[in-house]
Design a protein that fits this description.
This protein is an alpha+beta fold. The protein has helices at 2-30, 148-151, 174-184, 186-193, 197-208, 212-221, 238-285; strands spanning 33-37, 48-54, 72-73, 79-82, 95-101, 106-107, 110-112, 120-125, 138-143, 156-157, 163-164.
Length: 286
Amino acid sequence: MSKKILCLALTLTVMMCMAVTNVSAANSETDSKIYLSIPDELTEVGFVECSIREYKSVAPLVPCESDYTRCLKEKTGLYSYDTARVGGIEKGTYYSLTVSASDGAQSQEMLLSQECLGDTLVCTVSEDNSSVDANSCVLDCTWKNQSADEYGVLKTVNDSGEVTGDCLPLDVTPYDFFEDFMVNGYEQTKESSQKSDQELIDDIAIALNVNSDSIDECLKENEIETEWTKDASKAMTAEESASADSKDSVSTGQERTIVYISVAMMFISAGVIFFARKNRLATVVA
């Protein structure tokens, strides 16, 4: 009898888990909105808007400061933006999202994909506010239910020649980002940063963990002429990079093993307790 009850309980648990998973998946597919939590000190702003563009595209999907970019104030106090107004968010495509308000407050570029639909972007006033206008501010934003490493502030290179931001789209490698910068943004950043070729290229590569061999390969393949030399580079060599990746892999494997062992021990303990109680009950009945 106890075995039948246990089997029934396990079956119901599995069915409930499947139902919750299916409901969550359905919600993410049908909800085309993203939600925004705006700081109390900015709730009196004239409007809040979302500017969306495809990753690496220059032009937004719709013109900024238009009816198509305005957010709606919900009864819950949150703002919402329906991505259907820009034609929807395509599966497998990554976008850049910028939140701004009529008083000049603006966020950095956040990574956006279908995974973020239905989620809430929590915005706070940045403590590092370098705005000249006292009436405007910078917004720090994080997705409520997404990892900042996967869906945080998009990596970019500022005018000082420094890499800022937390993440890249899953289909963009650090080398891809480095190569794109060297081809499309290097000359402009070199002029604004006033850094030497050696210093600027090394700074970007080191921040992205791109090794000196890859730098050399990138420059040659794209026929980019600079005064950077591999011998003088402070970036890791290919051998050092491979060694670092190997250590990270081992560390990750050890952490997963510990988790697996812990879960297994929990199931074993539960089984021991169950059968111990069953035997004790059988002894008492006998």
